[in-house]
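Milestone 3.1: sequence recovery, worked example.
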């Protein structure tokens, strides 16, 4: 399996050195370039015209917008000024995205797990807020080891993979919940996922208990969308909406049977943000153990009820 890590190589255009990447382009690099292209197009400038502002030729601008070469902070500032970008938060977050080396704990897994998982971990790492809706499975950030093993046991029979590495990778991802408590995590889980028995009753009991425990974190909200919902929910598959602190730089991660899709256009961001808010409104109130009620009218009560069924 090919590594997704990138290596920098010094290149030169007529006006000075640039740094080009050798190897696969990460999702972060692609998104950075897409934002630059979107801003330039909105400003009505051609690639050669934008290049002239910072001493770059048109092809170098195109390579930058494709995520293949870096852009230093001075050139970025000149472009953002020329493009009429005045949002200070957006500018700071975009600069942060461009400066990033892409290295983190996930780098150690570069030759052991698929590239899409490395991109997911890096995207999650940038989150100031993360919203996740799931239909048939417990969200990956909330899964206990026995549940993860049950998922990968079936997957390993369908494709060749390093099961131990992928299990360890998923458990490493979960550290994000507690490492930076200022980050906000909201989960809406369909009741279907809570009733699935494929991991076995013991694993599901452990999983439901874990949901109740993890919900005690002040930055984690867990809601259940019940079968008894009286309004029609918006049609959607499972998705994750990652907001890095600037809503315009949010990313929607959508899982499909054959691939994972990353969406960064404003229409998709607003559509999925609106969809998640609608799902949250339809779902039961968040797990709140201080209420100490077994009522099925809240998420805590429903999870406790399903736990009782597994224990009886």
């Amino acid at each position: 399996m090919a590594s997704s890590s990138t290596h920098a190589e010094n290149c030169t255009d007529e006006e000075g050195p640039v740094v080009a990447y050798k190897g696969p382009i990460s999702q972060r690099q692609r998104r950075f370039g897409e934002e630059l292209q979107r801003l330039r197009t909105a400003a009505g400038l051609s690639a050669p015209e934008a290049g002239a502002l910072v001493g770059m030729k048109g092809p170098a601008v195109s390579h930058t917008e494709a995520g293949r070469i870096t852009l230093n902070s001075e050139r970025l500032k000149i472009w953002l000024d020329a493009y009429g970008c005045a949002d200070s938060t957006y500018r700071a977050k975009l600069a942060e995205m461009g400066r990033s080396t892409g290295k983190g704990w996930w780098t150690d897994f570069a030759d052991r797990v698929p590239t899409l998982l490395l991109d997911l971990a890096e995207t999650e790492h940038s989150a100031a807020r993360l919203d996740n809706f799931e239909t048939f499975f417990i969200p990956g950030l909330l899964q206990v080891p026995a549940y993860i093993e049950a998922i990968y046991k079936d997957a390993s029979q369908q494709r060749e993979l390093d099961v131990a590495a992928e299990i360890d990778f998923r458990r490493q991802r979960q550290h994000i919940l507690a490492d930076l408590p200022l980050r906000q995590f909201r989960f809406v889980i369909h009741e279907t996922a809570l009733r699935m028995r494929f991991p076995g009753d013991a694993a599901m009991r452990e999983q439901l208990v874990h949901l109740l425990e993890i919900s005690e974190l002040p930055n984690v909200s867990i809601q259940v969308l019940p079968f008894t919902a009286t309004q029609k929910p918006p049609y959607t598959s499972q998705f994750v909406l990652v907001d890095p602190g600037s809503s315009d730089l949010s990313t929607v991660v959508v899982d499909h049977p054959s691939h994972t899709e990353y969406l960064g256009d404003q229409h998709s961001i607003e559509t999925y943000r609106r969809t998640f808010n609608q799902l949250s409104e339809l779902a039961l109130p968040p797990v709140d153990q201080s209420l100490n009620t077994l009522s099925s009218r809240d998420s805590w009560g429903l999870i406790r009820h399903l736990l009782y069924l597994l224990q009886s």
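Strands lie at 7-13, 16-22, 129-134, 184-190, 220-225, 239-243, 251-255, 260-263. The radius of gyration is 22 Å.
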